[in-house]
Amino acid sequence: MSTSIRLGTRRSALAQAQSGHVAVALEKVTGRRVELVPITSEGDTNRASLSEIGGMGIFATRLREALLAGECDFLVHSLKDLPTAVPAGLVIAATPAREDARDVVITRDGTPLHLLAPGSRIGTGAPRRMAQVRRRAPHAEVVDLRGNVDSRLQRVASGELDAVILAAAGLSRLGGESPLHRDVTAPLHREDLGLGEWPTAPGQGSLAVETRADADPELLAALGALDDERTRLAITVERAILEGLDAGCQAPMAAHAAITGDEVRVRTVVYAPDGAQRIGLDVTEVLNGGYIRRNGSGNGADAADGADPMHAARALGLTLARRLLDQGAADLVSREHSS
């Protein structure tokens, strides 16, 4: 490896903050300096609604082009923004330990989302969150929203919006740089939304560390040291559900896998865009010696002895996607290839 390792990152404060966390961890592993290389993606320049421009990796495509062109040595993505298919020549070398996967509601006075007054204006740009807001607060007005965390919170503080929905992990990674920890024009309040009633996007709270498949073996090994196996197992289940639905990473669907002891509990829901309908599953599977098997059946999701647990996790996710489709999920979402 060269003296410094180049980490390609979007220019937003959040992207650079999360890249910075990975950079510090990699510097500890390698003893080498990690240099942030700012790259502008389509998602940073196209201000159209996410529901209009779709979820086909608008935040990742330009970064991946830069990686393949040798402009940087590796990337750090928010996993929830990443298409399920990895392009030829690239590899997800690590998924560090997951942050808080929940969504949070930010308001001026601390009123819970479901108690906001009729006509309250709630900002979010994600179709999944839009559908969930329409279910939780049907008398509110959903405002399609883009912009960084600062601008979103300022719109609440100023009174332009009554609430915004954000990812808890993003606020955590911003740390002291989070607008919640700085002076704003009005005090703001946070409501954490439980994953049982408000599951979030596949991979939310997780990062993906991506590099070229032919990268220096020393770099691949160093990045691999950042991987958290339990996180990778959980997000493999979640993203396989998204893959099986073939709906794109901005679809109005949620999936969250939680591992406790030898079990994985998966909550997954597909929503109609207007929130009027939903189809969901809440399934617990047993982890037997590191492999997933059908709870109570004794037959593995991948029954072969010695099977790769990640393969078994993906098989479970695809099975759950088929169950959702069998129950009518295809009628609720516009299916598109998420590769």
Q: What would you note in describing this structure?
A:
With 339 residues, the chain is of the alpha/beta class. The protein folds into three domains: 4-96 and 206-227, Periplasmic binding protein-like II (D-Maltodextrin-Binding Protein, domain 2, 3-Layer(aba) Sandwich); 103-192, Periplasmic binding protein-like II (D-Maltodextrin-Binding Protein, domain 2); 233-331, 2-Layer Sandwich (Double Stranded RNA Binding Domain), CATH 3.30.160. Helix content is 30%, strand content 24%. The chain has ten helices and 14 strands. It has helices at residues 13-30, 42-45, 50-53, 61-68, 127-136, 149-157, 168-174, 217-224, 229-245, 309-326; strands spanning 4-9, 33-38, 74-78, 90-94, 103-107, 121-124, 141-144, 163-167, 189-192, 207-212, 253-260, 263-271, 278-288, 291-293. The strands form three sheets. It has a five-stranded mixed sheet, sandwiched between helices. It has a five-stranded mixed sheet with strand order 7-6-8-5-9, sandwiched between helices. Helix 1 packs across helix 7 and helix 9 runs parallel beside helix 10 (309-326). The radius of gyration is 20 Å and the shape is globular. The relative contact order is 0.15. The model is unreliable at 52-56 and 294-306 (pLDDT under 50).
